[in-house]
Amino acid sequence: MYQLVSSCSPSSSCINQCYCVGDTGPLPFVRRFSLEDIKRATGGFRRIISNYSQGSVYKAQFRDGLLALVKEVTALHEGKDAFLQEVKLLRRLHHRHLVSLRGFATGPERFLVFEYPEHGSLKEHLNDPLKTPLSWRTRLQIAIGVTAALVGVSVTILRLITPDRFENWEYLNFFCEPPINHVSISSSNVLLDENFVAKLSGIAFLGSPGNHIGMSHSHASCSEGHMDQDCKDMIFQLGVLILELITGQSSEKEGGNLVRWVQESKFIGSVDKIVDPDLGNSYDSKELKSLLAVARFCTKTGDKPTVSIQLILRYLQGK
């Protein structure tokens, strides 16, 4: 069981400094927002950035100046305790390439509040003609950063739920993938900070009924075959994102065509025609071929994942 501890009344409109108290101790300094705070900051829930499996995602501006990403949580089958477990787990995710949890709101409706990096979403920079085009080096670092975020989630959660195996780095590298229920990798979920460092926002732990990942599921989360489909979906999404970085084309409109193109046996002969025109000739041909090789592998259908996210990261880093 978890309880909220605060110096303010839960019905108050103030922003509280709270923490969740549970089996593993307190989780300090998670801000609790009132539902009225959320409504006001999102312009009456009109500032929608995108939609995902559990609701809408909003851009929010709070009265104290905080610019934030607010995620609605509607598919909450497990109840209040599961939501607080979600808050607890997300608060413990500290990684350079993951957005940080800033707070939450609970009641008839539930919301998670994350940091909103200065330069907004990758989608805006690829699709908005008024934005300065991203350089090749920046695009490569975004691909590496998103992949590193997935590895970071894997290590952090395994540290929490399988401490006896965490020291075994070989186990982490070759047998475990992130034991999480929801990963959404898209240009809308990749945010860019003031230095254009990528931060992934599409991470969640709440799932369908009977599928919530708790502390007792440590061994099942990493058992052979358990994550095959989830890993396959995640790796496929990563491949589509890489294609979007290379071409500048929206995966929402051209995703299927891009995948079919990269899977063609003679695709390499038409690479120059598919590269984002905004790049001109300012890209490294060797790095381009490496990125395309990763995208081709990731979007190959019909097979189980044979290479872990960790090994994909090593390849992208040139190791």
Write up what this structure looks like:
It contains eleven helices and twelve strands. It has helices spanning 35-41, 80-91, 122-127, 136-161, 163-166, 169-174, 228-247, 251-263, 271-274, 285-298, 309-316; strands at residues 3-5, 16-22, 25-32, 48-52, 55-61, 67-73, 101-105, 110-115, 182-183, 190-192, 198-200, 203-204. It has 319 residues and is of the alpha+beta class. The chain is globular. The chain has two domains: 31-115, Phosphorylase Kinase, domain 1; 120-211 and 226-318, Transferase(Phosphotransferase) domain 1 (Transferase(Phosphotransferase), domain 1, Orthogonal Bundle), CATH 1.10.510. Strand 10 and strand 11 form a beta hairpin. It is 38% helix and 18% strand.
Summarize the structure.
Helix content is 38%, strand content 18%.
Helix content: 25-40%
Tally of separate domains: 2
Give, in order, the helices and strands: EEEHEEEHEEHHHHEEEEHHHHH
* CA-atom Rg in angstroms: 20 Å
Arithmetic mean of pLDDT: 76
Q: What strand order characterises the main sheet?
A: 1-2-3-7-8-6-5-4
Major β-sheet annotation: 8 strands, mixed
Total number of helical segments?
Answer: 11
GO molecular function, one term: protein tyrosine kinase activity
GO cellular component, one term: plasma membrane
Keywords: ATP-binding, Nucleotide-binding
Protein name: Protein kinase domain-containing protein
